[in-house]
Design brief:
There is one protein chain. The protein is mainly alpha-helical. The chain has a single domain, classed as Four Helix Bundle (Hemerythrin (Met), subunit A). Helices cover 85% and strands 0% of the residues. It contains 5 helices and no strands. It is elongated. The two termini are 24 Å apart.
């Protein structure tokens, strides 16, 4: 939105292409995140399907357990991908804070706040699903990567919220 508003700002006609590129990046991020929301639902359904598998014989129990583990791993990977994609939103919002229409700087800041929230939501989904996965090496690795992104998201949110608040008081 900020990129589109910036591309139509009076006197910024020569910057139309610059902001169009940012707007296209934003649209692509939105499309991928929408896909991942649907895929998160699908991953949950895979877990539920695995839990409904038969468990009368030892072979059925083993197959059921493996299906649950496979589905659980996927239900960790999808929110991790969501976390990574949500983190990419910071680049776009930060650029709009720096070079976008100054009258829309608060919209860029709201985008930063939303990106941080999306990162946290995805990370929490990773953690809850990770609690029941037997592959602890995978869990430790992916949660470590997720935690690193959360820490970066916190830092960026704080830094750019302060920048926007300062801009508003000038």
């Amino acid at each position: 939105m900020v990129a589109n508003l910036s591309s139509h700002k009076s006197g910024w006609d020569e910057r139309w292409e610059e902001f169009s590129i940012w707007a296209e990046k934003g649209q692509a991020l939105k499309d991928e995140l929408n896909y991942l929301v649907d895929e998160d639902t699908h991953s949950f359904n895979l877990i539920m399907d695995a839990f409904s598998l038969p468990k009368k014989t030892d072979e059925e129990k083993a197959a059921r357990k493996q299906a649950i583990q496979d589905a659980t791993k996927y239900a960790i990977e999808i929110p991790y991908r969501t976390l990574c994609k949500s983190f990419e939103v910071f680049e776009l919002c930060i650029a709009m804070v720096k070079v976008g229409n100054p009258n829309s700087v608060t919209d860029a800041a709201v985008g930063i706040l939303c990106a941080r929230t999306a990162c946290y939501g995805a990370f929490m989904n990773m953690k809850i699903n990770a609690s029941s996965l037997d592959d602890k090496a995978f869990v430790n690795d992916i949660l470590s990567k997720g935690q690193a992104l959360i820490e970066k998201a916190d830092k960026l949110e704080k830094e750019y919220t302060e920048i926007v608040l300062k801009q508003m008081s000038e």
